[in-house]
Specification:
Blueprint lengths: L1 H28 L6 H15 L18 H17 L4 H10 L7 H27 L1 H17 L1 H11 L26 E7 L16 H7 L3 E7 L7 H10 L27 H7 L3 E6 L8 H7 L4 E3 L1 H4 L16 H18 L4 E6 L12 H7 L7 H21 L6 E7 L9 H5 L7 E4 L6 E8 L3 H9 L7 E2 L2 E2 L8 H5 L1 H10 L2 H6 L22 H11 L1
Helix pairs in contact: 1-2, 1-5, 3-5, 3-6, 5-6, 8-15, 13-15
Length: 550
């Protein structure tokens, strides 16, 4: 009996813990259904018992610490991020660490993180026990430690980014940057930008039923852009907003930040964005979002780029009739949109030049969404899991807001832009989404915009010049930032080079990173500082350079 208790049972417990964790990891990083984790765990445990892992015939106990503990911990971090977000971007991790993650969505996130931590401790303890009791594990685990380090996507990404330090050309993207216009548009229209959290255009696919129907209905009245893809460093909320308002990917300050142990004081101060351009033309600008402006530097970005009014959860909750009607992130969209209507009334009644309102909702936020009570009255009860319910709710609320504003005459001479901030992260229909060709929502409504569908290979960088074009600004070569107006016949960077090339160049880029963080980063080396002339790689690259210089 004592041999069973002190020999067989600990080995079986250790094998079961590792087996379940291994099975879960495989289901997270592949498209296997969740229940296969139990099958994978059973196979693992069966093999372990057959080979007598942890209790060999000639057992030699040795008190030591496995080499694989650190690689396993790093892999655990990656699995947590992949399970939470689907696509893990290093840029997102670094930016949120520096810009701040306060007010990040309530205690639910902390509970999940604590659960993952407890599981990882159990895995590390199991590996340690097996390694100490089985010499075969002691011999093999060093090899697996190297394999785990080599296969971890986080470390692979770090290696690629580190290679940028010694790259031959770290200014490929920066050379293609075009400063935005400063001219005054004729009869400047008002502007309403509605960011629909994670509501990508892929949901318009018939496989998802009519959840996108209300956005399709709005799109029939204006310009619908298809093919707006997601390049690296544009795949989370702040990155999507900066890409679409500044025409650049969000490259975190990283080691460029001159106060490494202090939070960021500014967000991309080195480039002029939509707010800077409109404020210079006399626009009165407001940002309203259901979540906290303290999270991920949203408040810093909007206040630092020309917005007069910047309000999030902390400022808006006191305005609610029922302060308890909030979710873990912030306001529900029905109350956020009521406040948005009031803000537009205020700006419109002032009659003091054009106004601009940027709004960020929450309904479609992964993993399950935060549908409003008004949607339950419209759609029926929410099961708490199906993201398609939340997508339909978000689309209906957006259409209802636009129609309410139109009925009051508040959208006269107003450009209305509806777009997703980024592609959705891991949700209940993740496997279906990732099997499709995905693109972001981009719809523009307004006087002079004819009903049309424009199919272009583009990214969120191209939203910026397209928006400026629609507002009446004259663009140099129909470009601004790294984007190209999708109303023009000029080719986008994706059409010229392909998204894979852009992502590869982005990993090597350093000059654009310095441009974004000008003022809080060390001075960039000028051309006069460099003894060598910059090398252009291909004839196509040279042609592109000539086109931009002209």
């Amino acid at each position: 009996m004592s041999k069973f208790i002190y020999g067989h049972l600990p080995a079986r417990i250790a094998l079961t813990i590792i087996g379940l964790s291994l099975g879960y990891t495989i289901t997270v990083v592949t498209r296997l259904p969740w229940w296969t984790l139990f099958l994978l765990a059973a196979v693992w445990v069966a093999v372990g018992l057959k080979l007598r892992w942890g209790r060999p015939i000639n057992a030699r106990y040795r008190k030591m610490w496995p080499w694989s503990l650190v690689p396993l911990s790093l892999l655990g971090i990656y699995v947590y991020l992949a399970d939470s977000f689907g696509i893990v971007e290093l840029g997102s991790i670094f930016f949120h660490l520096q810009a701040g993650m306060a007010e990040h969505g309530g205690p639910g996130k902390l509970i999940i993180a604590a659960l993952y931590t407890a599981i990882m401790i159990a895995v590390l303890a199991s590996v340690t026990w097996l390694t100490r009791h089985d010499q075969r594990w002691r011999l093999a685990e060093r090899f697996f430690a190297i394999v785990l380090l080599a296969c971890n996507p986080l470390l692979y990404g770090l290696g690629l980014r580190s290679a940028a330090i010694v790259t031959d050309d770290g200014a490929w993207l920066d050379r293609r940057y075009v400063s935005p216009p400063t001219n005054e548009p004729h009869d400047a229209p008002n502007l309403l930008v509605l960011y629909l959290e994670s509501i990508e255009r892929t949901y318009a696919n018939e496989q998802f039923g009519d959840v996108y129907a209300d956005l399709n209905a709005l799109g029939e009245r204006g310009a619908v852009f298809e093919g707006v893809r997601q390049m690296d460093n544009t795949g989370w909320t702040m990155a999507g907003m900066i890409a679409s308002q500044c025409g650049v990917p969000l490259m975190p300050a990283g080691l460029l930040h001159d106060t490494q142990f202090e939070p960021l004081s500014k967000v991309v101060p080195g480039v002029d964005c939509l707010g800077d351009i409109l404020a210079a033309q006399g626009y009165r600008l407001s940002y309203l979002g259901g979540a906290s402006t303290q999270f991920a530097g949203k408040g810093l970005f909007y206040r630092g780029h020309g917005f007069d009014t910047v309000k999030g959860r902390e400022e808006l909750v006191p305005l609610l009739e029922d302060p308890e009607y909030v979710n873990s992130w912030g306001l529900y969209d029905d109350t956020l949109y009521d406040i948005t209507v009031d803000e537009i009334r205020r700006l419109d009644q002032a009659d003091n030049g054009p106004w601009g309102v940027v709004n960020l909702n929450l309904t479609g936020h992964a993993p399950n969404g935060y549908p409003s009570q008004s949607c339950a009255e419209h759609q029926g009860e929410f099961d708490g899991q199906n993201i398609l319910y939340s997508v339909e709710c978000s689309a209906w609320l957006a259409r209802d807001l636009v129609e309410r504003l139109e009925k009051e005459g508040l959208l006269d001479n107003t450009l209305v832009v509806l777009l997703s901030d980024h592609l959705t992260m891991r949700v209940s229909v993740w496997d279906q989404l990732t099997a499709m060709e995905r693109d972001n929502t981009l719809i523009m409504l307004g006087e002079g915009i004819e009903p049309q569908r424009i199919r272009r290979d583009a990214t969120m960088l191209d939203v910026f010049p397209t928006l400026l074009d629609a507002l009446g600004f004259r663009l140099e070569e129909q470009r601004a930032g790294l984007g190209t107006s999708l109303f023009s016949d000029k080719r986008t960077l994706v059409e010229k080079h392909g998204i894979e090339v852009l992502n590869e160049r982005l990993r090597e880029e350093t000059a654009l990173q310095h441009r974004l963080w000008e003022g809080i980063s060390p001075r960039r080396r000028s051309a006069q500082d460099s003894p060598q002339e910059q090398i252009l790689e291909t004839p196509a690259d040279i042609a592109d350079e000539v086109e931009l210089i002209r």
